[in-house]
């Protein structure tokens, strides 16, 4: 079943996808591997996720675990074209030539002929536009199926879009009920840029929230599942991270129920514009 943005209440399967602005399909739900150790830990995490039906895996050069992710991809038994693999350009590698080299390093570690989605990890001032030119080149050569950014604010996106040949397909940002990013989501929606959430569970800090717990009781689900369901129904691609097989399965068990409008509004009301990660405007790159 394929889903397009705007029809998100009907997402009923982990294989459902959103249509990116260049026509590429991206799963609404995937596995993040931030802080998963390279080698057996990240490999088993990815294999457990794929076994549970995940088809989207999100890593980054800065996570230092692309090789383990690649080993899992080679061993999982799923055809390459059924997987959606994201990685990201590390901050020290930004710039035109250095980006081209960094991409090749990531592609080699992952053991892939192409990357589905390649993101600029952070908006390093004075460098991200040159990095984007390199991404456009790689995209035009067919080495990346979609290109995008991560942690970009509205003004970063506006700056990037000036003179760019390709519009970012995705903006991956910190996003959870305490940081709902309404203005950024509206801007990205107007420019057909898909929003993706990292740290969707706010490092577990919302799991005992009264509103979330009440909704979990109402739907006979866990607080984690309520938050992740809120993500996908809000039109937000989400990539919760875990290295535990039971948690990976629990995270994905969100496709057999639906939050109603009152539920969604109750979660929306939790926003405090509160970050737990770095502020893209005040970050030591």
From TrEMBL:
Known EC number: 1.1.1.-
Which residues are in the NADP-dependent oxidoreductase domain?
36-271
Q: Which domain of life is it from?
A: Bacteria
Name the residues that span the membrane.
Answer: none
The organism encoding this protein is: Paenibacillus plantiphilus
Which top-level enzyme class is recorded in the Swiss-Prot or TrEMBL entry?
oxidoreductase
Q: Name one GO molecular function term.
A: oxidoreductase activity
- Tell me the keywords, alphabetical order: NADP, Oxidoreductase
InterPro entries named among the record's database cross-references: AKR (IPR020471), AKR5G (IPR044500), Aldo/ket_reductase_CS (IPR018170), NAD(P)_OxRdtase_dom_sf (IPR036812), NADP_OxRdtase_dom (IPR023210)
CDD domains for the chain: AKR_AKR5G1-3
Q: From the Swiss-Prot or TrEMBL record, give the protein name.
A: Glyoxal reductase
What is stated as this protein's family in its record? Belongs to the aldo/keto reductase family.
């Amino acid at each position: 079943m394929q889903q397009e943005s705007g029809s998100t209440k009907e997402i009923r399967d982990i294989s459902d996808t959103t249509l990116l602005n260049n026509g590429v399909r991206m799963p609404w739900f995937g596995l993040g591997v931030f802080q998963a150790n390279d080698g057996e830990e990240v490999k088993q995490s990815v294999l457990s996720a794929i076994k549970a039906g995940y088809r989207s895996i999100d890593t980054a050069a800065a996570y230092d675990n692309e090789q383990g992710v690649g080993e899992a991809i080679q061993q999982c038994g799923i055809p390459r074209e059924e997987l959606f693999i994201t990685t990201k350009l590390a901050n020290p590698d930004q710039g035109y030539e250095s980006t081209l080299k960094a991409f090749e390093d990531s592609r080699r570690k992952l053991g892939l002929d192409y990357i589905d989605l390649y993101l600029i990890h952070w908006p390093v001032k004075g460098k991200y536009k040159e990095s984007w030119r390199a991404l456009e080149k790689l995209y035009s050569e067919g080495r990346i199926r979609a290109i995008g950014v991560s942690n970009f604010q509205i003004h970063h996106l506006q700056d990037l879009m000036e003179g760019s040949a390709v519009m970012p397909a995705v903006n991956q940002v910190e996003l959870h009920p305490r940081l709902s990013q309404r203005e950024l989501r509206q801007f990205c929606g107007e420019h057909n840029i898909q929003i993706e959430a990292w740290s969707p569970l706010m490092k577990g800090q919302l799991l005992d929230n009264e509103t979330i717990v009440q909704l979990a009781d109402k739907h006979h689900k866990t607080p984690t599942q309520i938050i992740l369901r809120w993500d996908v129904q809000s039109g937000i691609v989400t990539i919760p991270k875990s290295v535990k097989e039971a948690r990976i399965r629990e995270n994905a068990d969100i496709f057999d129920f639906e939050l109603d409008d009152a539920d969604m509004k109750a979660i929306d009301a939790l926003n405090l514009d509160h970050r737990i990660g770095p502020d893209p405007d005040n970050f030591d790159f």
